[in-house]
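User: Second chain of the day. Same drill as before.
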Amino acid sequence: MLKTDMPANSTETIYPCPISSGYGIATQQAWLLVKVYLIYRIILACLLVFLFYGRLGFSLNNSDNSQLFAFSSHSYFIISVISGICIIWQLTSYVTQAHLLIFTDILILTLLMHACGGINSGIGTLLAVSIAASGLLIGGRCAILFAALASLAVLTEQIFADYTDSFASTSYTHAGMLGASFFTIALLSYILAKRSEQTLQLADQQKLTIDKLEELNQYIIQHLQSGIIIVNKQQTIQMANAASLQLVNLPLLPASLDGISEQLAQAFGAWQENPEQQLVQLQLPNQSEIHCRFMSLPIVSEFFYMIILEDIALYNQRLQQSKLASLGRLTASIAHEIRNPLGAISHAGQLLSENPHLPIQDMRLTEIIQTNAIRVSQIIDDILQLSKRTDSRREKLYLKPWLTHYLNNFMIEHGIAADSFCLSQTDEPLCAFMDPGHLRQIMDNLCQNALRYGKPETGPIILQTFTLKQAPCIEIIDNGTGIGHEQIKHLFEPFFTTSDNGTGLGLYISRELAELNQAKLSYYLSEEKRSCFRLCLLNADDTKIEI
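Assistant: Same format as last time:
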């Protein structure tokens, strides 16, 4: 049942009867319709009173019919006037007033029909207007209800006339056809009102959509990093966003381009003469350099131009990012090229070490060759792994079963004893939003790091889960004594390692993968002065839209 905003003296709904879902009429439109119908009623009541006093067009053969017609027509006029007062001042609710109008129509018009000679008088056809009005004013099953009441009223009048021999003849067939027409009119008027309402709703939705799009466009334009200025052919500024004022270092928007920079106005004029020169670099009075790009914005009524301003520092930053990406691809190519000669060196050293006549000093040298070849190969593998980093394909992960399955597989793959790790999980269900492949790679690096430096022989490595600020977290706590505060600053930097055999890329890759999934990897010393890596993940039940 839909509700609408009514006057303060009414808290009722427009449609108290069960109607089709979603049907409703706006308050203003509803009161307008009932006022139009009231005007029709007053005109009809005045006409009936006039016909009574003029004795025109009615067969009033006896005093009873004359008295009934006079009573009905005068009552109809008085009720219409009272309804007009209530509607104009809204003394009653819309629902009550609409129902009273239709119900009194059915009652009084049926009495008038009987007073004028029954169904053959033609007065009964006026009930069709009332039924149509019920479909427009009320609609739904209530309109069908009033159609049924009107049909019963006509049929009752015929039965009464037949029983009392009021007229020479009665027509039940005519009454039945009139009742059927009432139901048809009620249904058609309801459909018409429904379509009219849907059209209005569609128009309102389209207007709302246009308003939202306009507001969204304004928000986007105002929050762009690049400055946007719209001008006409006379270089009069029509609009500019906040970024453009910041770039040109002006508190208020000037009226024309001359107020920003004479150089900018001249460059714009030169572009109008030669549209191929779209990019211009300007030196503004505030000593800042900006890139300017000009574009045409042809519309039906007028021709506008858009000037895009971009800070040279931002431009250089994007250029630097592009260079770094190219450098990453170059590094990967170099790593591939190094692997081939490195394989030859490693193979030659291995063959040399198999010589039975090789002196002990030379055997030591071959061991150095093999050890460093393996280390360089590991560095190359890490660099290739970093350069081949794939985009995050995150999904919802239930940490409790995932960690149990992961730890079992990890110990089997590395041949580790079951008591090397201790898994401690919270009872509450933790759901993380994470790429499972990236999480597995991070856990591999952290667990291998704990096995290598965390003194697993002195006690099990603890893996525990908990919630920190509604974020699911995993901690890997080993038995190591930790590292100094100065070393913690460089812990996640590439190629930083405290071991002679490490590459220094494992933790760097792990943090990069964590940030790629909007997770956070950190290191701290526990209360027992034990090394602890904490990985805080996104909560899958509280994800936010990424922009």
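Residues 1-25, 57-63, 543-547 have pLDDT under 50 and may be disordered.

User: Great, on to the next one.
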